[in-house]
Amino acid sequence: MEPTIVSNSTTPTFLDSLGYYHNISEEMLYDKYGNNIKSTSTRTLVRDTHAYLKKISTGYYSKKPTFQQLDLISRAMYRIKNVRDSSSDSFFDYCNNLKRSSLRDSSYIDFSAEYLYTCVCSNVDDIRSYTLEVLRQIDSSNAESDDKNILTQCVLIAYSSLLYSAQMECVDIE
């Protein structure tokens, strides 16, 4: 998958590709650890992702992260990794489980879930145009700057995940 940069400004930056890097990092981790990813330490996953992004991207922050940065990311990943995720759960069940693990982020999760639901289940003719409009609305809203940044990142990751999943081939195994 080639990077698809969606920007709500006139000059796309590396951060506008956040969703792309999110997805290729997940793919790399799955290729490396397979179904053992849940039992792999979050510190190892963070370390491997950092090394991978540093290797494949000239725009990635190339300094070694501090212990405190790795610790913060690892703790956040630990909470997400341990969210109950059953194949019998619906998308909204998973989102509710995720919100319970991080009450502080529940409004961001709701916003992202609504965006994804609209893109997948509504009659959105052009997801790219719809996404650009959502990003414009976030940018022109009266939300706090930090909230705008987080919502923009959520939408960019969700948009790239939609593009990524659209390119996957499903194979029935008998």
List the helices and strands and how they pair.
Elements: H1 18-33, H2 42-56, H3 67-81, H4 91-101, H5 106-121, H6 127-140, H7 145-166
Polypeptide structure, described:
The protein has 174 residues and is an all-alpha fold. It is built from seven helices and no strands. It has helices at residues 18-33, 42-56, 67-81, 91-101, 106-121, 127-140, 145-166. The longest helix has 22 residues, at 145-166. The two termini are 28 Å apart. The model has no long low-confidence stretch (mean pLDDT 80).
Describe, in short, the structure shown.
This protein has 174 residues and is mainly alpha-helical. It is 63% helix and 0% strand.
Structural class: mainly alpha
Q: Mean pLDDT, as a whole number?
A: 80
Unreliable stretches (pLDDT < 50, length at least 5) are none
Question: So what's the overall shape?
Answer: globular
User: H/E order of the elements?
Assistant: HHHHHHH
Supply the number of helical segments.
Answer: 7
Largest sheet: none
Binned strand content: under 5%
Helix content: 55-70%
Give the tally of β-strands: 0
What gyration radius follows from the Cα positions, in whole Å?
17 Å
Span between termini: 28 Å
Name its key features.
7 helices; mainly alpha; 174 residues; globular
